[in-house]
Amino acid sequence: MLVVAVGGDCGVELEPVSAARRRYGDRLVVVWFDAHGDLNTPESSPSGAYHGMVLRALTGEGPEGLAAEEPLDPRRIVLAGVRDLDPPEAAFVTHAGIRWVTMAETGTAEALLAAIEAVGGPDAAVYVHIDLDVLDPEVFRSVGCPTPGGMHPERLLSLVTAIGGRFEVAGLGLMEYEAGDLEDEADGDREVLAELVGGVVAAVAGHPGRTAPR
């Protein structure tokens, strides 16, 4: 059964990813499509907002009661499309050995698939997290933290499709939609969202529980 979590802010991901960790153990790789790293701690966070800490909390470091009981090894995280890291987050990425597939490397799927296999092997089970602010605000702006230089929906869909075609899919999270006003609706954000949600769910729905092809 494929678990699809729809938020809400990224803090919603604590339990779905933790559940995937309990189910798949060390096979789990988390691919984090996001403009931000979400790797702050309560001490390093400029805002104090939990949605900017949740990935760090999944590694076991977070607010009391809001950190994973079975921590995810940071080396089994792949950041994709992240382009706005606070200095403490950047230091943690380097120190912890987190893989980071930059925007420049997401033009095709090869770098992303190679990063997943490098950290999880060919039998990796992948939890796909999508914060909608990974998209470029010129094409989708109904998010709380729009960040220039993001992906177009077609590129994101092609990357998720490539993941689903290569690896077992452990779950999917779609987060951070903030419904806009009528002007946003006229600009087509809801249409973009509907097509993207349908596309990514279809891309992974046929693959949960299967072994990745060699």
TrEMBL record:
Family statement: Belongs to the arginase family.
GO molecular function, one term: manganese ion binding
SUPFAM superfamilies per record: Arginase/deacetylase (SSF52768)
Protein name stated in the entry: Arginase
UniProt keyword Manganese present: yes
Native source species: Nonomuraea wenchangensis
Keyword Thylakoid assigned: no
Key words, A-Z: Hydrolase, Manganese, Metal-binding
InterPro entries attached to this UniProt entry: Ureohydrolase (IPR006035), Ureohydrolase_dom_sf (IPR023696)
GO CC annotation terms, alphabetical: cytosol
